[in-house]
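Hi team,

Below is the intake form for Branched-chain amino acid ABC transporter permease from Streptomyces edwardsiae. Please confirm the fields before the structure is written into the shared record.

FORM ID: S-0412
PROTEIN: Branched-chain amino acid ABC transporter permease
ORGANISM: Streptomyces edwardsiae
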Amino acid sequence: MTTQTTAATPADAPTENASTGLIGIPPHIGRALATGGSVLAVVSTFLAWTWTDEFPGDLTFYGYPGGLQVLVLVGGALATLFALASYGVKGLGRLTPAGADAALKYAVLGTFVTAWYTILAISFKLGGLVNLEPGGYVVAAATLIALLGALALPFERPEPDPIDPDDTGWELFRHQAGHRWAIVRAAFASGSPRPVRALPSYAEILIIVAVLALALVVFTYGIGTEYDELFIGFLITAGFAFAALNRAGLVAHASQITARHTNITVCGAFIAAACFPFTQTDDQYATLGVYILIFATVALGLNIVVGLAGLLDLGYVAFLGVGAYAAALVSGSPSSPFGVHFPFWAAVIVGAVASLVFGVLIGAPTLRLRGDYLAIVTLGFGEIFRIAANNTDGTSGPDLTNGSNGIASIPDLNILGFDLGVQHDIAGFTIGRFANYFFLMLLITAVVVLVFRRSGDSRIGRAWVAIREDETAAEAMGIHGFRVKLIAFAVGATLAGLAGTVQAHVTYTVTPEQYLFAGTTPPNSAFLLAAVVLGGMGTIAGPLIGAALLFLIPNKLQFLGDYQLLAFGLALVLLMRFRPEGLIPNRRRQLEFHEEAEAPTVLSKTGA
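The structure came back. Fields below:
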């Protein structure tokens, strides 16, 4: 038994948990530096940062921000608003229902990282700091000053844990490092946002419209970035801006308002998505849009299996392939041995039913397994499908899929006389081929979302959640575990097959190599599972956002070459370390990982 003694603390000495900043600058001076530095960063975007237009974005103009300057302008403006709100400026208090200091720190840090990334990129690309114009030096100094000032803002320091006198040097180091990390986390933490007061319905609907419009603008800007440096800067700015808005409490308020008008929010989100092709001048980015929707729809189907029922499926992409092959074989392709051309509605039924049948056939003998054993079996099914599609070429097996050459020259869809393969002029806008398929895929995504919502809130949905949480306890309460899991497997497979029918026509060709377990290009089983985990299991918006990010980021970071998967893996490791519940978590799952979080007053039937 050991006895610890503590020296007396003088009355005028600061206590360990005093409200001080990370940097020893008086708080009032730090707040002034953060405010002034943010304003100066905004002003610097109207100056030239380099003398030559060889750097992408042409940062040589005065009075007209371009390229990465626009991102610094956005970050600086956001930081300035939060800085003024921290002074209690009238009318700005509504921007920070959870407090302004943490939001200001994130906004300033994001502006600093974007600005210094730009300065370093200019120096490396053009050959040194000598290529900077005065605006470049001004923004570097301004953002650094703002960051130092923000880090001086006061916060409540956590109490250190008691030290055991018998600790070794390594244990003492771990204790001190853990306490320092706890201090850093406390410096960027914010309080609980005050509840949003009820507003008139029209006002809340206008807020929802504004949020959706902002999301459309951000997505359109991100997908339209023309060079690598700009996209990396966009990721930095968007990430820190979202963190700042979250710490300010605005995300929580927006969530509360959208929860009161769920149907309006869902309909508005699809309307905003439908506006995307009209924001483009050509069909280039509509191509990315339709592939993102295909990927997101399949991920949402997997979310039923993994997120609601808790079944780890590592071969889910095979169901997408079954639907694509089934539709391709009956859609008039010259490579098809059947020589038939079904209308679209019949091809959709064939693809969905084929995936449903395969889901039942695979699930019936395997769903009595649990955990890792089920994952191994589903992984084997995915590989068996790909190998079987390779071998059914008329040589190694029956002539069905044309082997590694696949089903080629799949004709474009023609729905009620509307040819999706040609351009159409609508209200003065030219809608190209991929935009046509974008609208079709948007309708299918809406169907999948409807199925997910209705099934998740139904009796079978509650049974899925019960099986996910504790299968033994659920069966003891009268739930037929095998039947419930088989239904989840069949529904998920059907939704994947539904998306596969459209994918076959979009890509013109269906080959076995499109349906791998892992690869650098989605969709594949690993990316699908990552999209569900990244976005948030058991939610609707989570897999949709996760799929969009996982498709868009590899497409924009092709310059990394062989290091794409390395960067992707590091990003997932960091996400699982700091936000294991996903970007848009299920509320119950969020409480599992953050026990100190405040419990929600109301949980939906599936815990969202």
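SUMMARY LINE: Confidence is low (pLDDT under 50) at residues 1-18, 597-607.

Thanks, M.
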